[in-house]
């Protein structure tokens, strides 16, 4: 079931999962236990809080991570 | 008409009927192409990575996302952000550990994949029952949303609304299988993304394309003011929040109607590409939702109510079709063919 070329992808997947999991855990833990942590504005005098920067940053980081992973693994599979 | 019902929204009704006609046409075309069990359950593995990615986005942007998330933002502001972050963050688990492996197995359902190395009968029963449980709970939410929308816009009683939508879904799945379900999802996702973009642009144009100005107006309009920019309900129940976080991070990997999608593409590379595009489109749509949700607060009233209501219908119909197919596959392929018939049923006869 485990294709040889997927094993480096698996190790990379574990690392990236831990990275994203840590970032998401930070978001959830702060929301649960310290809601004031990111309550400050993104820019001076602005309304949007750092929470939104963290949240949207995490969403698009996820997309970027998946894109890089797919590009890397697919490129390795193409090599003979 | 129900007592005290609002006038019929003909824009929404016409757009909804157009969508139904188009999707029934897709179903008819799909039925003509469906020749085998592989065609029915997995679209003959002929869907490209990009097409499957759009279909995945369609599966993921359900009524819970489109209506529920925007409503949650409208009601509580920040609390919607936890769900908006949690849904996409759960997709890497799928692409890192599941998508390509499932595709390489070349099966039809998740139970097929699990029983490759494990005992057939007990594991298949467990996997099928798990899929059916997930599908049932998921369907309840979607059908309630569909019933409420149809009742609101068409003025027919809730029970008739639910039965009508259910009958339509059975037609899609029974005659069109995975081919119809995939293309209905693609059409729906395209409409949803386009409508969301137009709505968000209109909202932003009202505030000089300043997100700060939009949020400031939303804060002023909401009874809780600045509190909507911070966690509220999640902070009141921290351990429930942690539980939600775990469910969001790992839960997407257990959704049967998503996992079935990876059997529809030609190879493992396409399976990975499809989850990338699915995640990208979902991330884009959730970004729009935070404009639309706050726009509802800031502007009040309704922006493109008819169009958005029709798109809401389309969303529900398409997701229900995907869920129904996943449930039907669990019953017919996993339980009937492989458990009750002991694998002796001809899978080609199940079409």
Explained architecture:
The complex is a heterodimer of chains A (80) and B (351). Helices cover 71% and strands 0% of the residues of chain A. With 80 residues, chain A is mostly helical. In chain A, helix 1 (6-33) runs antiparallel to helix 2. The longest helix of chain A is centred in the C-terminal third of the chain and has 29 residues, at 50-78. The model of chain A is unreliable at 1-5 (pLDDT under 50). Chain B is built from 16 helices and no strands. Chain B has helices at 10-33, 37-42, 49-60, 63-76, 79-89, 91-97, 99-105, 110-114, 120-154, 158-206, 211-221, 233-236, 238-251, 256-259, 268-299, 305-340. At the A-B interface, helix 1 and helix 2 of A face helix 5, helix 6, helix 7, helix 11 and helix 13 of B.
**Form type of chain B:** globular
Q: Low-confidence stretches of chain B at least 5 residues in length (pLDDT < 50)?
A: none
Distance between the termini of chain A: 20 Å
Write down the secondary-structure element order of chain A.
HH
State which percent range the strand residues of chain A make up. Answer: under 5%
Category by helix and strand content of chain B: mainly alpha
- Sketch the major β-sheet of chain B: none
List keywords for this structure.
heterodimer, A: 80 residues, mainly alpha, 0% strand, disordered N terminus, B: 351 residues, 16 helices, 77% helix, globular
SSE inventory with pairings:
The complex is a heterodimer of chains A (80) and B (351).
Chain A (H helix, E strand, L loop, with lengths): L5 H28 L16 H29 L2
Chain B lengths: L9 H24 L3 H6 L6 H12 L2 H14 L2 H11 L1 H7 L1 H7 L4 H5 L5 H35 L3 H49 L4 H11 L11 H4 L1 H14 L4 H4 L8 H32 L5 H36 L11
Helix pairs in contact in B: 1-10, 1-16, 3-10, 3-15, 4-5, 4-15, 6-15, 7-15, 9-10, 9-16, 10-15, 10-16, 11-15
Short description:
Chain A is mostly helical and about 80 residues long. Helix content of chain A is about 70%, strand content about 0%. The longest helix of chain B is centred in the middle third of the chain and has 49 residues, at about 160-205.
């Amino acid at each position: 079931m485990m294709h040889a070329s997927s094993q480096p992808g698996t190790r990379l997947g574990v690392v990236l999962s831990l990275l994203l999991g840590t970032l998401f855990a930070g978001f959830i833990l702060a929301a649960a236990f310290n809601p004031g942590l990111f309550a400050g504005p993104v820019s001076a005098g602005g309304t949007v809080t750092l929470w939104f920067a963290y949240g949207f940053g995490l969403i698009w980081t996820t997309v970027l991570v998946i894109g890089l992973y797919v590009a890397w693994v697919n490129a390795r599979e193409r090599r003979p | 008409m129900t007592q005290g019902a609002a006038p019929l929204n003909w824009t929404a009704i016409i757009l909804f009927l157009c969508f139904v006609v188009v999707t029934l046409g897709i179903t008819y075309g799909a039925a003509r192409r469906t020749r085998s069990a592989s065609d029915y359950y997995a679209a003959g593995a002929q869907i490209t990575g990009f097409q499957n990615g759009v279909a995945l986005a369609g599966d993921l942007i359900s009524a819970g996302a489109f209506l529920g998330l925007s409503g949650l933002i409208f009601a509580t502001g920040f609390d919607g952000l936890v769900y908006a972050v949690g849904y996409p963050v759960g997709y890497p688990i799928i692409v890192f550990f599941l998508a390509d492996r499932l595709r390489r197995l070349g099966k039809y359902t998740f139970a097929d994949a699990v029983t490759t190395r494990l005992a057939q009968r007990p594991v298949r029963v467990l996997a099928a029952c798990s899929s059916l449980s997930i599908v049932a709970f998921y369907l309840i939410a979607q059908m309630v949303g569909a019933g409420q929308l149809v009742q609101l816009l068409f003025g027919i009683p809730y029970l008739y609304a639910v039965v009508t939508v259910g009958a339509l879904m059975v037609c899609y799945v029974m005659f069109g299988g995975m081919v119809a379900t995939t293309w209905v999802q693609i059409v729906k996702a395209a409409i949803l993304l386009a409508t969301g973009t137009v709505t968000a642009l209109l909202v932003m144009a009202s505030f000089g394309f300043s997100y700060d100005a939009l949020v400031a107006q939303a804060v002023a309009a909401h009874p809780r003011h600045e509190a909507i920019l911070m966690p509220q309900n999640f902070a009141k129940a921290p351990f429930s929040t942690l539980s939600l976080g775990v469910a969001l991070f790992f839960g997407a990997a257990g959704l049967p109607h998503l996992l079935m999608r990876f059997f529809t593409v030609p190879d493992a590379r396409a399976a990975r590409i499809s989850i990338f595009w699915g995640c990208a489109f979902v991330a884009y749509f959730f970004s729009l939702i935070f404009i639309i949700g706050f726009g509802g607060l800031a502007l009040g009233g309704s922006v493109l109510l008819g169009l958005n209501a029709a798109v809401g219908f389309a969303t529900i119909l398409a997701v229900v079709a995907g869920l129904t197919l996943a449930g039907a596959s669990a019953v017919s392929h996993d339980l009937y063919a492989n458990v009750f018939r002991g694998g002796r049923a001809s899978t080609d006869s199940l079409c």
